[in-house]
Design goal:
alpha/beta, 16 helices, binds alpha-D-glucopyranose, five-stranded antiparallel sheet, 21 strands, eight-stranded parallel beta barrel
Length: about 550
């Protein structure tokens, strides 16, 4: 069995400020989170990914940092954070944090110094141009909210580069002192006890920006350097990066081509994410099959992190315009549900019409396909979005714990809350919360707990290979399998609405005592695999064999 913990993990992503508020100031905090670790253990989570925890003017939900060596005082003290690491570790939960070093906030003392004078020791920590770069209206990440990637700074009397908002100046990774500082930041948090980092905007970090060149070269060597550094400091630390790039550019992020991964351990599987959405929208598995086929083979030791929803909009930019429109029509029919012309700012439950069968199907797919599953907080109870909030805030509302005021998130007055709790309609906290689902054995939360526990007994999922089984299956049905030395699992998913029968007797020779270990309902025993029933939106996890040696 692989001892790389990250390929068997269940990662849970949360924003401390919207999770639990322990001191009644309206903002979630570390102590509140410590109080809910047992909830996360019961759910089956083995690794927490915390969205940025540093001091910030909060103009991009913390992705605009003013001090990389401290925690946002609203969340508690560094001591509270160390206590969180300890308490999580006691329960077998690892913690990784966002590493947001493509840019800083414009309020960061480094940038304040850099802009103040050409002689500042921090001047070259950022990317400047004396002239207006002709490509300054290209490469924006937030079209509609950002109209340039170079802005003129009157204090500096020069143009500075910012891949994201203008208040997020890019750090200059070509500067060896910046590289050293980034390494120092990682060393600091590893020393405190984090198990690794979610690297924000990886392709932009390594960009060696040249004014006037919209396709500036990339320095992949920095990723090799960073990996070496991190691994020396903590051998089992993981680097999980956001790199939403074309398939033929992916492998460079994992490795320098030497056969095993010596750069990043994991990448989010954006490619599969878009195709999963398309497949669900069409009720047809073909886009998933294509994604499994078209993605390059990974170097050994490298893994995918698989997700349906994250803290951002669903990014459909890798689909064709036609495919994107299909997904928009099905899951984001109203203009207010869409963002930046490429994405959907909704949570999964409302997207799928709060249809429990379809939700289970979607999550069963996510958790059984290749890679390590990443779950966004609140998805386990099927939370909704608040489209009256601007941009991405729609999907960043507080966790709904109970029937108490503010859904048990905070005892503060409503006006004091960091963000309003969803209070009305079928997704309001009086209808939808953790406590209510605890009292209901058939709840989505209960389903997630059972599903994750079953997954824990199937180590070949995530750590092993994931392959599409090319058999003649009824339309709408995806058959795939997971294999490694510990055993083999077979998965059937019906993305369509019709009840079907699937004949998989060609796989019977590979099975010892095949049996259902998890399914949307009780089915007849699998027998010789020649007449497997599958309900509309149904799924079956069938164990083919298991090595007694594990
Ligand atoms: C990443 C984050 C996003 C943030 C951006 C800038 O894409 O996921 O939330 O706005 O980086 O840091």
């Amino acid at each position: 069995m692989s001892d790389r913990w990250y390929s068997k993990a269940v990662i849970y992503c949360l924003d401390v400020d919207t999770y639990v508020d322990s001191d009644g100031d309206g903002v979630g905090d570390f102590r509140g989170l410590i109080g809910r670790l047992d909830y996360l253990v019961r759910l089956g989570v083995t690794c927490l990914w915390l969205n940025p925890i540093h001091p910030t003017p909060d103009r991009d939900d913390g992705y605009d940092v003013t001090d990389f060596y401290a925690v946002d005082p609203r969340y508690g003290t560094l001591g509270d954070f160390a206590e969180l690491l300890h308490q999580a570790g006691n329960r077998g939960i690892r913690v990784i944090i966002d590493l947001v070093v493509n840019h800083t906030s414009d309020q960061h003392p480094w940038f304040q110094s850099a802009r103040s004078s050409p002689d500042s020791p921090y001047r070259d920590w950022y990317v400047w141009s004396a002239e207006a770069p002709p490509d300054r209206h290209q490469g924006m990440v937030f079209p509609g909210e950002q109209d340039e990637t170079w802005s003129y700074d009157r204090t500096a009397k020069a143009w500075y580069y910012h891949r994201f908002y203008r208040f997020q100046p890019d750090l200059n990774v070509a500067n060896p002192r910046v590289r050293e500082e980034i390494k120092k930041i990682t060393a600091f948090w590893l020393q405190l006890g984090v198990s690794g980092f979610r690297i924000d905007a990886a392709p932009f970090i390594i960009e060696l920006t040249e004014p006037g060149n919209p396709n500036s070269p990339k320095d992949f060597e920095f990723l090799t350097e960073l990996r070496q550094h991190v691994q020396w400091r903590r051998a089992d630390a993981v680097l999980l990066a956001e790199a939403n790039v074309e398939p033929d550019g992916l492998v460079d992020y994992f490795s320098d081509g030497g056969g095993s991964s010596n750069r990043l351990h994991m990448l989010f599987d954006f490619m599969l994410n878009g195709r999963l959405m398309l497949a669900l929208a069409r009720r047809d598995p073909e886009p998933i099959i294509e994604a499994l086929r078209d993605t390059p083979a990974l170097p050994s030791g490298a893994s995918w992190a698989t997700f349906l929803r994250n803290h951002d909009e669903i990014d459909l930019s890798r689909l064709t315009a036609e495919q994107r429109n299909e997904v928009f029509e099905e899951f984001g029919p109203d203009e207010e549900m869409r963002l930046y012309g490429r994405g959907i700012r909704r949570r999964l439950a409302p997207m799928l019409g709060n249809d429990r069968r379809r939700l289970e199907l979607a999550y069963s797919l996510q958790f059984t396909l290749r890679g390590t599953p990443v779950l966004r907080y609140g998805e386990e109870i099927g939370m909704g979005e608040d489209l009256s909030l601007p941009g991405r805030e729609a999907i960043r509302t507080p966790m709904q714990w109970s029937y108490l005021p503010n859904g048990g998130f905070s005892s503060a007055e409503v006006e004091q809350l960091v963000r309003p709790v969803i209070a009305d309609g079928e997704f309001g906290y009086e209808k939808l919360n953790v406590t209510a689902q605890r009292h209901d054995p058939g709840s989505l939360l209960g389903w997630f707990e059972r599903m994750i526990r079953t997954l824990r007994e199937a180590p070949e999922v995530g750590a092993g290979s994931c392959t599409y089984v090319d058999v003649l299956a009824p339309p709408g049905v995806l058959v795939h399998r997971a294999d490694d030395a510990s055993g083999a699992m077979l998965f059937l998913h019906n993305l369509g609405t019709d009840r079907v029968t699937v004949d998989l007797q060609s796989l019977a020779g590979d099975a010892e005592f095949p049996n259902d270990v998890f399914a949307d309902q009780e089915y007849d025993p699998v027998g010789k695999l020649d007449a497997l029933e599958l309900a509309g939106y149904g799924y079956r996890w069938i164990r083919l064999h298991r090595s007694p040696a594990g």
